[in-house]
Amino acid sequence: MNSVYQNILIIEDERLQRRLLQRALESLTDAKIHIAENGLEGLELATQFNPDLIFCDLKMPNMDGVQFAQQLVNLSIETKLVFISSTDSDILNAVVHMASNQGLKHCTKLNKPISKQDIVRVLQQLEQVNVVPHNKDIPTALILEEDELQLALINKEIRPFYQPQFDAKSGGIVGIEALARWHHPTEGILTPDRFLPAISEFGLNYLLCSTMLRQSFSQLKHWHNKGFSVAMSVNAAPSDLMQANFADRVVGLLEEFSLPGHFITLEVTETEVASNLNLLIEHTSRLRLSGVNISIDDFGIGYSSLAQLLSSPFNELKIDRFFINEMLTSDSHMATIDFIVSLAKKLGLTVVAEGVESKQQALALQQMGCDVLQGFLFSKPISGEQLEALLAKNFSQHL
């Protein structure tokens, strides 16, 4: 019996379907099963019992599945949600995407007729993610001043955490992505969503990028001196790369720390439109001449385009987690990943997949030809000290 779930809610207007789903779940879990015949009843039970998991039919009288999902968002009820329907897959996929965008981050689907094997697959998929209960305190937004942020950057309170990247075939660590964390004196360790909006508001993006570059290069040199010959990826926005001294700054850091350029990858984040594409190409070309790798981050969802990919000197492409999240339950997401990998291979690009959370995803990506995998399946972002211990273990196993 499975003890992951305490309360499961089934919302289904067809009696036979309700009963079949209930029997299957009772045989697979020891959760309390709650039954509703429509969205209105389901919403009342969801409010009363705070279910860990909800199976919701898409087409129902009084309140359909789309309306029910919207009410969950309005009431701030966090749960795992499975839409069930016999409608066309493209409609079901669109509803899952809509619900995820509205804030229900752990949504998936089941096509009718539902088999017990399908239910097992979905349960296994959803067991790998944790949902924060809706009554848990949500961190309040910080009110930040420009001087406070500048001091935090200058004093290196904002410094890298590191997430390892693994070779899809050998399983060894081949790279590390540096990710900003603020070691706040009173709030503890803050993730970027707590301070990046203020960084952008005060125009401190380039100072952040410069700080992250210096700290990451210094850490990488330390690891190389210990015999851990890994690469380092650092994020840079198009506006950073278009700064007049950006390429000189990077080349200067390579010389200062005696690092070969091929150990550095700059991930160009597609969070903004490049205001001067020619200048962006000029600076990235100079960096490539110094051996630095240039990666398109979040490919497929930002402002990147095939035209930019063909006209710029990128040599790595990073598939966004948006496609990875749904690849096992959406044929269109799987086909998109397959297309991206195939295109990248024909263009001679290294392919990195981020947001990998399950062994099934990792295996599928490896079979499709992804070169490097990154995600919580392997490791969350961790401190330099923690990663050094992981590197020591990794290199001892792959000697």
Automatic annotation (TrEMBL):
Keywords: Phosphoprotein. Residues 142-395 form the EAL domain. Signal peptide: none annotated. The keyword Phosphoprotein applies. Residues 7-127 form the Response regulatory domain. It comes from Vibrio agarivorans. SMART domains: EAL, REC. This is EAL domain-containing response regulator.
